[in-house]
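Hey, I'm writing a tutorial for new members on how sequence and structure tokens pair up, and I'd like a real worked example in the thread rather than a made-up one. If someone can provide the structure for the chain below, I'll link this post from the tutorial.
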Amino acid sequence: MPLIDEVFAGFRTVDADEAIKAAAYTNVHRWLTDEAFAAYRPQLEWLIGEKKWTGLLDRFFQVLPFGTGGRRGPVGIGPNRMNFWTLGASVQGHCEYLKEQFPGVTRLQVAVAFDVRRFEDRGGNYNRALPNPVLGVSSRDFARYAAEVYAGNGIHVHILPPESTRYLATPELSSIIRQLKCHGGLNVSASHNPPDDNGGKFYDDRGAQPIPPEDQIMSDLVEQVTRIETLPWLDAVRGGKIHFLDDSTHHGYIDLCRKQSLIQAPKFDEFGVVFTPLHGVGMTTAFEVLEQSGFRPTIVKEQSEPNGQFPNVTKSPNPEVPESLDRAIALATERGSDLVLATDPDADRIGAAASDGRGGFRFLTGNEICALLAHFKLDRLTVDGRMPPSPLVIVTAVTTGLVTRIAQNFGVQVVNDLPVGLKYIAAVLRQLEQDGRYQDVTATPADYVMGGEESHGILATPLMRDKDAASAALLLAEMALHCKRRGSTVPDYLESLHEQFGYFHNDLKSIILTGIEGKQQMARMLDRLRADGPRTIAGLTVTQVEDWRDEDGRMGPLQGATDAASRNVLVYHLGDAARVTIRPSGTEPKAKVYVETSSRPRKPSFSDNAWRATCRSLQEQGQRLADDFVKLAMYAAGV
């Protein structure tokens, strides 16, 4: 029986929608017959011979979705995997987009960055005895191929030289785009995803990820790609299309981060900080900034080497996960340090744990980091008389409401209703550049104080347009040092904020739904919740439901499929002091459930016991809300 007939018969045994099977069959046929995919054929034929029908269906039923500024997912064989074809098609579409956006510009320029990843097939999905064009492929290899595609389209590329041992962090790429006045950029990275993943994330001329409708325009152009134009590396170098970055842009980025400093540098032995890059690129960003700013970070040596397999990291190389900081906390405890700092693989997210002054360490959530830094920076600028004329703080809608209360206390303008992602904070800054206004806010980018999101992302300066762990690390270290100089600790500081502005309990739960079945379950879950959502959650009455896809709502008409994806959000308000929000992740096969419960500020008449009881009650209420809503959502998904 011919291979393609075996595929047809095999797909009939899988329980999936017929349209999905038909699409997968068409794509498998193309990959078996088109010469462009000849290198992938040995592995594809092996998968067919092994009758791995469910896996084949998942690899071929769609082209890896272009969303959240690019493509990200498992490396492998098929259009629904990251490989040279899916990356190349994305870059080709980006080339077409740049030519449309900048008509008449004869010298289009992009910057290309890459992280530490290398595909080793840890999942054992392929036959190691057969040729495999993606086995052993690194982010550097993907970036080099991307440069060949840009050059093949006549676009100039700025990239690290082949002999360089450095990598480029996400925020450094944003800085480079702005320094070199590039028209766009690409970062080959999968951030903190599992080791077998990779991706390509695109940037605009401001160093930000595009938002709707621009990302929809780019996505449409990517989908129309039928041919990928390339120019071989050596020819592109000889022809002057590929330009190698020197150290000047790196120094520019480090200097920009250091300029965010708010207090006097520490004395030689005044303060102890332990740092880990979690095997990522943070040694050349956060570590350098801390060291050059007078701190003397102690390194977690076994996690300091760049390694895309993340061999010495517990659970996940994601500083949002407390377990990822376990080795750093152990070292800090041993040395009697004051603070632990960690960066994720592409050094845009920051993680932290602070000494409680009694021999223990308190892990700080992304919401807590955002609130602490907002108050610290606003307080320091006020004390020093350096507050801008029309100060502004920007956060996403799922970020703790504590930041809003803090900013309002300082008389600062706040934008706090944005979709998830730093790109929306960058979009506000862009509108301020153009119009001097955003909604009811009047300001310029120079008035921007800081912004952030709950997922450990901080943007401390408008001169970058993506979250940056290096400047956040410096501010956290200075904040902890400031506390120590006053005979206090960071946990004490956080407690004082809760007492002054109200206790906010924020919790995050993930509903993981993988593969084709998971994709269908995710869609079913949100559809059913929209059609017939809960009227009560954990005994509390739902007083208002916000559907961000409602075109008559505050967000207005949808601007395409990418906008619909980012606005696939439901918010359940339970009175004035609790809310539950659900949204599918844009980068991982999961739905995220955000829960917030809050109180008013502590009254002077409250005893310590009464205040602790109030906080504990809100924590328990938040847990009940999270548990009950996850059950409701899973039931809606048919799980």
